Amino acid sequence: MFSKILIANRGEIACRIIQTAHRMGIRVVAVYSEADANARHVAMADEAFHIGPAPSSESYLRAEKIIEIAKKSGAQAIHPGYGFLSENTGFAESCEANNIVFIGPPSSAIAAMGSKSAAKAIMEKAGVPLVPGYHGDDQSVETLRAEAEKCGFPLLLKAVAGGGGKGMRVVNNMGEFDDALAAAKREAQNAFGNPDMLIERYLTQPRHVEIQVFCDQDGKGVYLAERDCSVQRRHQKVLEEAPAPGLSEETRKAMGEAAVRAAQAINYVGAGTVEFLYDVDGSFFFMEMNTRLQVEHPVTEMVTGQDLVEWQLKVAWGDALPLEQSQVKTRGHALEARIYAEDPDQDFLPATGNLRYLSTPDESAHVRVDTGVTEGDDISIHYDPMIAKLIVWDETRDQAINRMVQALEHYRIAGVKTNIRFLHALADAQPFREAELTTGFIDDHRELLFPKSKLDTHKALVLAAGFVLEQRKSREVVSTDPWSPFGRQNSWRMNSEFAQPLQLQVGEEIHDLKVLERDDRYQVFVGDSVYNLTARLDDDYLQAVINGHRISIHGNLHNDQLMLFYEGDTFNCTVYKESYGFEEMASEGSLAAPMNGAIVAVQAKVGDKVTAGQSLVIMEAMKMEHAIKAPADGVVTEIFFAEGDQVSEGAELIAIEVNEEEAG
């Protein structure tokens, strides 16, 4: 077995690989960018090498530098993880040329599956069912238009060299085709250096079911059950599970055997995933093959009891597969939720910030957390916004869902926006519990997935007041005379009672509270209502009783910003301090950057007349493009940035003089 390997990756997957390598007695070399100098994967590794500036193009994508470090450190093999260079044919070839084992398939297999159009031709020959569409070499707009008409609508444009939802657009009619094609080509060129497209019929109610396959160097292959990854946003997976609910054993077997045929058709070695679209009539069609370890591999590990990274290392060393197909068994049900730094209320825009507060559920045989961050780390614009993967297992799907709901309630983050509240609503939604799964699940159930807060506003304000006041108490210096009334921390006044004012801002609204503090409780006045409150704060845990109702919550108060966590829900407010001279960052008719990122394209000029909904600026952040659109009809009066500029969240991008009839 290898004695030392290098991991050409970062974040949670690097940490995940290190854990298995160390368990197997293998030393690990890490690489890191300037942004990751203090990252968790660097601390966990046996040694680490600086590889370049923060942008991945100048660090984690520098294949020649990684090869140089591997040789310098004496690493016998390189594990690419997922993303970055994991499916880069040239990198795999460089490893082979330098006598370094690439812990993945041979470069020829990556090349065969790297082109979606070529992959479909291979699959067709191997007898793997395909979705109707076009995957030819002629990429002229005229040909693509003609093939689109032939395929029929709705259709899906996909980058030939793509993955992760990038370079992908759903087109509903020919009127949308040209704009969608241009945008998909541009995104594909930026992400993969290849703008070529393929066209597929877009199934309206499909499920995304994928098979985990493994092949050794002797050509033997097995499949390790299937995963359902139907719940997606922007074609990127949000919640995955194994096994896929509702599949017959005959379908499982047919799909698994088709996946192994697909792998063996390209002389595959190692871990791979064959993705299928599963239709309502029980038919399934090959979608693509990912020639690497998948993000969602832990759910397969939880139901099979196997360590897939260990399998990768053994197969790369030359060992036979650890199990024959007949020996592969599954037990129970597992789910994985991807915890992202993003704002679900703003169409899942990526978010950046500091993880000033991070509390995760306790890990056990039922709960697992795969992460690459710790409290105090920054989520930057340079890499994927995934914070962690939360994985749960139990005997049945219903029990596993309950585990997930509970675990999400115990996952608390402040300092950066996350999708935890959304995930909680998703996992607890009745249609999800009933396995009514399609790739359009999120769009179909938006009302359920974006629910109103569980906390009554008044009750939340009272809890916030209790948290603020109890924390102030814990930090104040106590008088040396315990009997002195002047040492009391309750706003004591001689011969009178004093209700101290407390202003809490929620969104744009400021709430005026008054708090009368006694020795053992508070009276909190909110509007015309009075609440009797007893509260006890232990670090971040508040135990409270409001008018006889006992409630326990967690919270984080930092620089007057308070976040409360309650049953998967959150309540945010600010301890308000009136400020003067505040000016609006952007005047009426201006457009501000919704996140940190780079300007990819400016699609208007000063003086242009624009209409509501017209795309004006294209921004790129977290490897995804976002269109900034005109809020109303008007005329462009100023443009503040150019293509290629980096901008910060809130920066004014463009100013529009709004037509008066529109503004009115």
From TrEMBL:
Residues in Biotin carboxylation domain copies: 1-447
UniProt keyword Transit peptide present: yes
Domain ATP-grasp as annotated: residue spans: 120-317
This protein's record includes keyword Cell cycle: no
InterPro entries: ATP-grasp, ATP_grasp_subdomain_1, BC-like_N, Biotin_BS, Biotin_carboxylase_complex, Biotin_carboxylation_dom, Biotin_COase_C, Biotin_lipoyl
Catalytic activity: N(6)-biotinyl-L-lysyl-[protein] + hydrogencarbonate + ATP = N(6)-carboxybiotinyl-L-lysyl-[protein] + ADP + phosphate + H(+)
Named cofactor requirement(s): biotin
Superkingdom per UniProt: Bacteria
Protein name: Biotin carboxylase
Organism (species): Marinobacter adhaerens (strain DSM 23420 / HP15)
Classification lineage: Bacteria, Pseudomonadati, Pseudomonadota, Gammaproteobacteria, Pseudomonadales
